[in-house]
Structures are given as C-alpha cells and as structure tokens.
Amino acid sequence: MSRVRADLLVRAELVLPEPAAAPIRDGAVAVRGGTIAAVGPWAEVSARHEGARLLDRKSGGLVFPGLVNAHTHAPMTLFRGLADDLPLKAWLEDHIFPAEARLTRELVALGTELACAEMIRCGTTGFVDMYLFEEEVARVVDRVGMRAWLGEGVFDFPTPAFPSGRAALAETERLAAAWGGHPRITITVDPHTPYTCAPELMEAARDLAGRLDLAMVTHLAETRWEVEEITRRHGKTPAAYLDALGLLGERLLAAHCVALTPEDIRLLAERDVRVAHCPESNLKLASGIAPVPELLAAGVIVTLGTDGAASNNDLDLLSEMDTAAKLPKGLHRDPTLVSATEALAMATTQAARALHRPDLGRLAPGAAADLVVVDLDQAHLRPCYHPASQLVYAARSGDVRDVVVAGRLLMEDRHLVTIDETDILARVDRAARELGLGPA
Ligand SMILES: CSC[C@H]1O[C@@H](n2cnc3c(O)ncnc32)[C@H](O)[C@@H]1O
Ligand SMILES: [Zn+2]
C-alpha cells in the first residue's frame, strides 16, 4: 500500500484526542499542511503515512490538544508583581492605569513576546487578548506562530493608544481589514467594561461587531462594586444592562462573570453568551468566585482564562485548570463538581465552541494541528492512570516538552524555536528598569 506524505509525525506513549476520549497507547498524530491528517495507533498511522519529520516521544510522551487561554492581556507581563494584594478598583485606578499611561508600541511588543514565551512553555497554543496598541500584539503573534483572537481595548477615556473610544473602534475596523484572512489571527471588538464605556459606545461596538461579523470580548460582573455602580447608573445588573443594549448573544465572550444573580445566569444561558472564567485573578483581586457549577448547569459554555500577569501573576493554564477544578469543590464541599476532564475541556473543546471554531480543541482528522507533548517520565507524573487527571492536578509548566501550532513546532524538547528567550529576558529587565515603576 502506498503511503501518504505527512509534514510531521508525532509518536507518543499516550495520545489523548480530547478530554473525555479514551487515550491511545503507542499512538500517533500525522500532520499535513497545518491540519491533522490522522490520529490513531502508531502501527496504523505509520502504515498509511510517511513523515518528512518524526517527533519520537514514544517513551513518556503524552500528546493532547493545545490549551486556549480565553482571556488575557498579554503585554501586562511587564507589570507582573507591580501592585499585589489590592482590590480590583484600587489596583486598576491607582497603579495599572498610571503604569499603562507610560506604554509605547515597543513595550507592548516586548511584553507580548514575553507572554508568548511563557504561554508556550505552559502548553498554550492560542489566546484571546484585549489590550492597547493591539496591532503590536498581532505582529508578535504573527512572527511567533501562536493562534490568537485580538481586540483593541475600547474605553470612554483617552489612552496612550487612542484619544477616544470611537478612535479605538475605528482602529478595530482597520485591524479587521488588515488582518482579515490571516490563518491564525482573528480580530475581535473589545469594549472594556460596562463601567468604562458609555451606553452609546457599547452600542457602537455592538454595531461594528454585527456589521463586520466579529466576536466581542468584554469584562462583565467582575465585582460587587461593578454591580452596585451599574445598578446606580442604569437601574439594572451589568448583565441585564448589556442585554438591554443588545450586546448579549453568542458573539459575546464575557470575562469573569463573578457577581451574577440567578436571573443573570438564566439570561446568559438564554442568550448563549460565552464565559471566560478567570479563577486565579478573581481570587487574587478578592473579587470573589464565579458560580461555575450554576453556569454549567444552566448550559452556558464556560472557558478558562488567566487574565493578565499583573493580577494572576502568571499565564499558566495548567495551574488555572487545577484551580478551576478545586475551587468549586472546596466552596460547595462537593468533590464531584468540575472534574479534571471538565477543567481540561474548558481550556480545549469548550474554548473551541466559545470561539466558534469546531476545528480546534481536539485531535481529529481535519482539525487544526495545535498540539502539546508533556513529558510523563518524571516522579510527579507516574503512574499515569488518567491523562486528564495528570494534566490538571499534577503537571507543571516545566513538564511541557513540545508545542505545535498549525503544524509548526514552536517548542521542541523545551527549546523555543521562534523566540530568542535569552534576548527577550534581558530586554524585559532593561525595560522594567527604564519604566521606573518598581521600588527605587
Ligand atoms: C482596554 S485594554 C484592557 C484593559 O483592561 C485592564 N484590565 C486588566 N485586568 C482587568 C480586570 O481584571 N478587570 C478590568 N480591567 C482589567 C488592563 O489593565 C487594560 O487597561
Ligand atoms: Zn481582563
């Protein structure tokens, strides 16, 4: 039988095609032209495919779908550890906004490259980002090879990037035209929050997203303060307020969703809004704990995000999955809530559903070739009864050995292929000193 040519063959001790699937022992993934050509036992896949390259991880390799960070602010790596142990409002208004006033395009690019290095090392292949000078984020993502959904942050006040929310929306339209058709980059419309955007700006964002058929990203119901403030201004909860403005729908990915009423949860489910749960950021800023079991029971698609590195303080989805799985167990004293499989699904298959990309989040013929190899040959990862359990409850970022996005190796044997990490670390330290934000 003649064999089909593949660009890359990955052989592994275990292949986990999707969170709830049975793992394939001595399995393989064949990659051709950025997509997956075959997944199955090595004997079958290698009988039908010859690979230009073989990544042989038969000894200790666990292959699984790449993780998607559904909510972050990548360039905020530059502000990691700058203002800890504060509540959201003081953190943002007294520390982060003043620091962001000093941002330049170059700093945003630098912070993004640092973020990409960190995320790839943690098994993340794609991320959803909202920030300032987002074109710089796009340029770095294009060069580094990750997958991303990127939106210029829209505020109702001037930022170093744009003088007004309207100007930021105009930039969004320009970005959508400039990056439309890119194989890995998708532009989104990103009004910041219900309390930093006036109703008219929210409506303009909604109209732009509808006209260009783009997804929207916003922060929603992050704190009790936000609920009180929006109720005072508009007489409604933030979710009901956005619904009255026509923003709630399957187009919207809403980050946080901590301070929700039972009616809000029903509304989000009815409108098919997608939620990016950010448990570690919510804990650190003392915002509270999102009602994830209730959202899941109502049928809401829940994904997982780290938020920015200034509120987390890392971009590690492996530890975020661990937190997401344990938090509801402790809160409700119920160990059955959010299983390891469900937590892994939030970062893979559910993220794909939330982002309207059925070709992501699983390893199957025709799916995008975004995959990760973890090295199981370590004391804290043996024995391996359930791969999903290992990934959620035991794996750490240093265990990630290889990362492939759209068929391209971005990390091979723990070496970042598309990022000069030594150079980035040196430049980041220099930039942090020059920014002069830390202690004197
Ligand atoms: C409009 S660009 C993004 C904007 O969001 C800020 N930000 C970071 N984390 C949070 C959060 O948890 N809630 C609200 N806003 C946040 C970031 O600093 C940028 O200014
Ligand atoms: Zn955020």
Describe the structure.
With 440 residues, the chain is an alpha/beta fold. The protein folds into 2 domains: 4-65 and 368-416, Urease, subunit C, domain 1 (Roll), CATH 2.30.40.10; 67-354, TIM Barrel. The protein is 39% helix and 24% strand. It has helices spanning 42-48, 88-100, 105-121, 134-144, 165-179, 199-212, 224-234, 238-244, 262-271, 279-284, 292-298, 317-332, 340-347, 349-354, 387-394, 421-435, and strands spanning 4-15, 24-32, 35-41, 49-65, 67-72, 124-131, 147-154, 185-187, 190-191, 216-220, 252-256, 274-277, 302-304, 371-375, 400-405, 408-412, 415-416. Residues 71, 73, 219, 255, 307 line the site of zinc ion.
Short description:
This protein is of the alpha/beta class and 440 residues long. The protein contains 16 helices and 17 strands. A hairpin with an 8-residue loop joins strand 1 (4-15) and strand 2.
Can you lay out the helices and strands and say which pair or pack?
Blueprint lengths: L3 E12 L8 E9 L2 E7 H7 E17 L1 E6 L15 H13 L4 H17 L2 E8 L2 H11 L2 E8 L10 H15 L5 E3 L2 E2 L7 H14 L3 E5 L3 H11 L3 H7 L7 E5 L5 H10 L2 E4 L1 H6 L7 H7 L3 E3 L12 H16 L7 H8 L1 H6 L16 E5 L11 H8 L5 E6 L2 E5 L2 E2 L4 H15 L5
Parallel strand pairs: 1-4, 5-6, 6-7, 7-8, 7-9, 10-11, 11-12, 12-13
Antiparallel strand pairs: 1-2, 2-3, 4-14, 14-15, 15-16, 16-17
